[in-house]
Design goal:
- Helix 1 packs across helix 2.
- The protein contains 19 helices and 23 strands.
- Among the domains are: 53 residues, no CATH class; 250 residues, no CATH class.
- It is 28% helix and 18% strand.
- It has an 18-stranded mixed beta sheet. A three-stranded mixed beta sheet has the order 15-16-18. A two-stranded parallel sheet has the order 8-10.
- By secondary structure, the protein is α/β, with parallel strands linked by helices.
- It starts with 12 loop residues before the first helix and ends with a strand.
- The longest helix has 25 residues.
């Protein structure tokens, strides 16, 4: 496809017709007899004719047959690539700058594209003060953007220190037509006091992001925007030396990152409708009096609470001072592994004890230093990393697949709140250097007296079967009496691939099924893209159901954990995704099409 630039920007058909007449007249004359003025006129006529020809060719291209609505959607998507969240309800923490360069490229291709761009107000809603040495150009561009955005709300983006100088003058020059339409503000590197820059009413402001180590706030009780921000719902404060003063009756989402001021309690106390809270690298230690939370807080409407990059002492202090509702989902990311002292601290213990957790998934770290745990019920969930111990592994004491593991991982014994778990997923990475020890699994599973369903990986099956049949250390010390580890356990699911199915059957045959007769069902789940092995050589009194899965298995998560709401509350990744990735996902056009029919293998 050849795209011709259009020179005739006005599209004046009458001018082109006159040019054709002039050229026809010149063709019947001797060019040696033409004056310089006539030659220039002839040249201009030729350009007009070529422009008209190119324009006609452009209109005949297939792309020009697309309706304008399709172009609008493409333009909006192309100019939104730098932002992670396109949903209007999402928090726009990392909002992009749609500057003159990007818009100039789209609106300068041809008249058709330019008309569509000018007729799409959403392309012109982001305003930036630009560089200080070109502030007049950006001020005129901002005025043009306001006009082309029509009546839509606009955004102010200051994401470079070179854009932040004299920001208050830039806002003042644009006047109330700009400030009254502000919907989102993304401001970094402000050179002036924030209470001086944002001293105007913002009746339509919904989202505010302030981030700068050197940003100053005057020690005053006067709130930003004069307290006139009745629609502010999203607030993010990062690396602030002093907390600004706000009036936040409508705030629902709050993110605090590396803020050292002790005004966090007052800020949280002024947000009665808060539903989402994210604290990142906030220092809090109640033992030395440096905690930013000096009085108990009750956030009754909180639905999602995320802690990132926190040490155990900070976790204990925050959980102690914040009365987390039982209807809140709790996510720990990048925090120190929770030790026994933290798990037993009053705040976290009270939260965990407030729910009857019904599902749990556990996965050892690749280094074997901790275990990742996710526990849920039908409504909320909690995800954290807890400390695990490991022991050196003898070279001759390898697991079933002889992959040379170096250490045994001893999973932690689950605290009393997890005794109600009815479904447990024990996930291990294939070819990992560390895997669960059978005795450790037995102690962990033994604490789940209501466990009914157990899901394991094929490469950890041998350790699991040993855990279910071996006596615990407590039983041995009591006289060697063997008791059922999980008296309520009825179903065992084994996740496998086609190259391991036959070897699993050998393990099942060799297993002490006389000790596992309480199991009502054993299921061999072949991952998508795998093909079930032949069952003709399987000989046992224990029937095994074989199922070829069409989708990658994962532990069911409640809606609050399975939906990405904003940057600080992502969709939770199930442990099966960590250990399996996308290797076994079904691909379109694959030679093998997984089925969902069960194949029952029984003794011949």
């Amino acid at each position: 496809m050849v795209w011709y630039p259009c020179v005739d920007a006005n599209g004046d058909g009458q001018t082109v017709s006159c040019a054709i007449d002039v050229l026809s007249l010149r063709c019947r004359q001797d060019y040696d007899q033409l004056s310089a003025t006539e030659l220039l006129q002839t040249e201009r006529s030729l350009h007009l004719m070529l422009a008209e020809i190119h324009s006609r060719q452009n209109t005949m291209l297939p792309i020009h047959r697309m309706p304008p609505e399709v172009f609008k959607a493409i333009f909006e998507d192309a100019l939104s690539r730098r932002t992670r969240y396109l949903d209007e309800t999402a928090i726009s923490w990392d909002y992009p700058v749609l500057g003159l360069t990007q818009l100039a490229k789209i609106s300068s291709v041809c008249r058709y594209w330019r008309a569509i761009a000018l007729g799409t107000p959403t392309l012109w809603t982001n305003i930036s003060p630009g560089w200080m040495d070109r502030r007049q150009i950006f001020s005129r561009a901002a005025t043009m953007f306001l006009e082309r955005a029509r009546d839509l709300p606009v955004d102010l983006v200051v994401d470079h220190h070179g854009h932040a100088g004299n920001l208050s003058s830039f806002i003042t020059d644009l006047g109330p037509d700009f400030t009254s339409r502000l919907r989102r503000i993304h401001c970094r590197h402000a050179w002036e006091h924030l209470d001086i820059v944002f001293n105007f009413p913002a009746p339509r402001l919904e989202s505010l992001y302030l981030d700068d180590t050197h940003t100053e706030v005057t020690a005053t009780d006067v709130p930003l925007f004069g307290g006139q921000n009745p629609q502010l719902r999203y607030l993010s404060l990062s690396r602030m030396a002093r907390m600004p003063t706000f009036q936040l009756p409508t705030l629902t989402h709050l993110h605090i990152h590396r803020c050292t001021d002790c005004g966090l309690s007052a800020l949280l106390a002024s947000t009665p409708g808060l539903t989402d809270l994210s604290l990142s690298e906030v220092g809090a230690d109640s033992s030395n009096g440096t905690s930013p939370l000096m009085s108990p807080l009750h956030l009754r409407k909180l639905k999602r609470f995320a802690l990132h990059g926190m040490c155990c002492s900070s976790v204990r202090a925050i959980m102690l001072y914040m009365a987390i509702p039982r209807s809140t989902a709790l996510l720990f990311t990048g925090c120190d592994t929770l030790n026994a002292e933290t798990m037993a601290s009053s705040g976290l213990r009270d939260y965990l004890s407030s729910r009857a957790w019904t599902r749990m998934s556990i996965r050892p770290d690749e280094e074997g230093d901790f275990c990742s745990v996710t526990a849920t019920d039908d409504h909320v969930g909690v995800s954290f990393d807890c400390v695990a111990s490991k022991e050196h592994r003898d070279p001759d004491d390898w697991c079933f697949y002889d992959i040379g593991d170096m250490h045994w991982v001893i999973p932690p014994t689950m605290p009393p709140p997890f005794q109600s778990v009815r479904e447990c997923w024990v996930m291990e990475t294939l070819h990992a250097m560390n895997s669960f020890r059978a005795s450790g699994l037995r102690d962990m599973l033994g604490s789940m007296c209501n466990l009914e369903t157990l899901v394991v990986c094929a490469w950890s099956l041998k350790a699991v079967l040993e855990a279910l049949s071996l006596p615990s250390q407590h039983d041995v010390e009591a006289g060697g009496t063997e008791v059922l580890v999980c008296p309520m356990l009825k179903e065992l699911h084994i996740l496998t691939t086609d190259d391991r199915g036959s070897r699993i059957l050998d393990v099942l045959v060799d297993a002490r099924f006389d000790r596992l007769r309480f199991l009502e069902r054993v299921v061999l789940d072949y991952l998508p893209g795998s093909c079930a092995s032949s069952m003709r050589d399987y000989r046992s009194d224990r029937p095994v159901d074989v199922v070829e899965l069409t989708e990658q298995p994962e532990m069911p998560l409640p809606l609050v954990c399975s939906v990405e709401v904003h940057a600080f509350w992502p969709k939770w990744r199930p442990h099966t995704e960590h250990i399996l990735g996308t290797k076994y996902e079904t691909r379109k056009g694959s030679r093998r099409h997984p089925r969902s029919r069960p194949v029952i293998a029984r003794k011949s």
